[in-house]
Design a protein that fits this description.
2 copies of one chain form a homodimer. By secondary structure, chain A is α+β, with helices and mostly antiparallel strands. Chain A is built from 10 helices and 30 strands.
Chain lengths: 435, 435
């Protein structure tokens, strides 16, 4: 089976754990089998591999998330890079063309598209296989997954099936309703639209040709910026006549807010945290090295990261987006394909950061025109190249680089480095890369 | 007038702003006249000077707080250093002997002893002057200040005066009572014991001779460790027959817990903080560089510092001591006489700190036997002495020091330095000082 995992998200709703470069799906809050913490991305990826190790997984995401995907899933995971954000129709077309043109899958092959962040169990991924089998039969152009609702939600679109069979034709779609309408939909046997659908590659390429004018991967990639942003649901699903829905009755959760995410957490406290006995229904997710102490709180989420500290009544946390948007905080922590960096100190004319470079990884060869830099190797072994000259470095070594000097560092073992940047104008844009 | 300010405190009750080296009296949360924030220590010191610039102030405190006192009050403030903590009787004896032997005050001079952290207005310090005048008359050996109670508190000891005059003899003392007893004391016209008393130097020196066996400053200092820890109230006040009390009816607050301290704060938010409109009676004191966002909270204090994060119902915050005692966190921030330091990163075999050295200040000349160090000057100008060789340094300079090398740094302007310590065993005890 071919699965395309859609990885999007703006990163505001799980602040301070999510930020511009780390969307909610990358936040590590679920216990893995190995007893450490994993993110939604890692959890879903592991579940798919467990259900069927042969599944071909393609992650489609924008440039800004590629590093995080590789950091969390390893460098071997296949990624289709969207040159910019353009909603799900262009993303799915690009991924489908990639599978056809770059990976040479035939037009008859079935693809299942699925968000990267559902909170589900294995039966969900078994159902995706059934979805693929059904799409392969070709009775319909699209086979959707319809999720059996557990309550009359106003948050989801609804699918009205023709009958109560496991697989049936779709009668109608309904936009997100109000509470009263949602109740009547439930009585009519409606299902939630979870954004999951299976189709044959040829079908989407034909749509691409019709709507966009071309269907070749290279052309799509090069002209991606000019494509009209539109969702796959709106552009395709709601218009298609030959469409089926498959009923899914297993567990499905959309962990979009702190309130819903804490319901899925197996432990109430992650990181250094203490709650006294008068606390009730308090969740703490603390990524900082310092302890959090909570006393006498009810129904509260506390989360601390290098970007900030949230203390919120759980229900209120759904309304945090406008407040987070007010916050003008530079990104203090990021996961990159090569490791992580964390800002330790910010001054007007200096910036001190900690870099952890994974064994075998390296930075790009680059220079800065407006700042000097110093590296102090606090652990590990590696090599630096400064203005073309390679030198080995290890714990305790200090490397100084004047503005303009070209430099890079290569990790032979995991390298931990304190980097001090100094200059009148320190900016992430002051960087020139060399091959 | 001579005032001895007692500066004690364990630092647990205002965690995370207070720690082992910063007791609650050093926490800056009150608006000063200059519109920046000041601590209880700074507020009291300024108030005394305003009421009478001629007042001689002696701060008595233990070694661990001397740096913080000098940092906050300036290097010219007079400090009597207690070699270790021994409760108030030994501390007051030592300070009194210091005034007599080192400062050559006569036995007839009056001293007023006062805690360093009452939250009061100017009339309080005017009352201290009256207390001194009364003590000078010599009608009693001790003149206490008795604070007119505002409610039947269980937290304070009570003084029962002979009559309702402003100054009267003391009939009796009562230990901290339960609520019912406190109510009856109030009906009897009892006053709170705020730990303030005036006496003539000769009186306390005589007591020292009787109780301890000697009264000379040098002998007291050298033998301080062997003295029995006992409070002045218990050792002296409650036993003295010739004792008066002066009634004080002005504002007096004992800001011992977060709950009481937030009542005295003029602003609800200090530092980077956002509260949404559903928050009620929420105070935030944030010393970190990252923002705190609070949503939907009632009657809560949030405080964040380099040592940790507290989120507590205000009433519950009175019970935090045992929880804070569980926390085994190294001191992450400290104010020293020469400036401040803050821990930025802790690894097994490295420690990265940021040092701010005030203009004109310097470190001790010292060495470490088990670690190398690197200094990166991120701003300012100064000089280093490394193994006897002096060199000027300025922004951008990097100085490396091998284990064993003797070093110091002198700030010609304010100096900001990133220091990276590296070694198998990094400890504050690995430090040898040289003259």
């Amino acid at each position: 089976m071919n699965i395309v995992l859609l990885s999007g998200g703006s990163g505001k709703r799980l602040w301070p754990l999510s930020n511009e470069v780390r969307s909610k799906q990358f936040v590590k809050i679920f216990r893995s089998k190995e007893k450490d913490y994993q993110s939604m991305v890692q959890r879903v990826y592991q579940q798919i591999k467990e259900v069927n190790p042969e599944t071909r997984i393609l992650v489609t995401t924008s440039k800004t998330q590629v590093s995080a995907i590789h950091h969390q899933l390893g460098s071997e995971v296949e990624v289709c890079v969207e040159p910019c954000r353009k909603d799900t129709f262009p993303a799915i077309v690009l991924a489908t063309a990639y599978l056809h043109d770059v990976k040479h899958l035939s037009e008859e092959e079935v693809v299942v598209v699925c968000p990267i962040d559902p909170y589900v169990e294995k039966d969900y991924f078994e159902a995706l296989e059934e979805l693929a089998v059904e799409a392969k039969k070709g009775k319909a152009n699209l086979v959707l997954m319809g999720i059996e609702p557990t309550y009359p939600s106003e948050k989801y679109g609804y699918i009205i099936p023709d009958n109560t069979e496991k697989i049936s034709n779709v009668k109608e779609f309904r936009e997100k309703p109000d509470l009263e309408k949602a109740k009547t939909y439930l009585l009519q046997g409606a299902l939630w639209n979870g954004g999951v659908f299976a189709y044959k590659i040829g079908y989407v390429l034909k749509l691409a040709k019709e709507w966009i004018g071309f269907k070749e991967y290279n052309a799509l990639y090069l002209n991606y910026k000019t494509l009209v942003p539109i969702s796959f649901d709106y552009a395709v699903v709601e218009k298609e006549k030959k469409i089926q829905v498959m009923r899914f009755m297993g567990q499905w959760k959309d962990l979009g807010t702190w309130n819903t995410i804490t319901e899925a957490m197996e432990e109430k406290l992650i990181g250094k945290a203490i709650v006294n006995q008068t606390c009730e229904n308090v969740h703490i997710v603390n990524e900082l090295d310092i302890p959090v102490l909570c006393m006498g709180l009810q129904n509260v989420i506390v989360s601390a990261s290098p970007d900030g500290i949230l203390v919120s009544d759980k229900e209120q946390s759904s309304y945090m987006k406008p407040y987070v948007e007010q916050i003008d905080q530079q990104v203090m922590f990021a996961e990159k394909s090569w490791g992580t960096y964390r800002v330790l100190d910010v001054e007007k004319e200096s910036l001190t950061i900690k870099i952890i470079l994974k064994s075998g990884e390296k930075m790009n060869y680059h220079s800065h025109s407006r700042r000097d830099e110093v590296w102090i190797i606090i652990s590990g072994r590696g090599r630096t190249i400064i203005d073309g000259i390679e030198q080995t470095v290890c714990t305790g070594d200090v490397v100084t680089m004047q503005a303009g000097s070209r430099h890079m560092i290569i990790a032979d073992t995991e390298l931990r480095v304190i980097e001090v940047q100094m200059g009148k104008e320190i900016s992430i844009y002051d960087k020139q890369k060399f091959a």
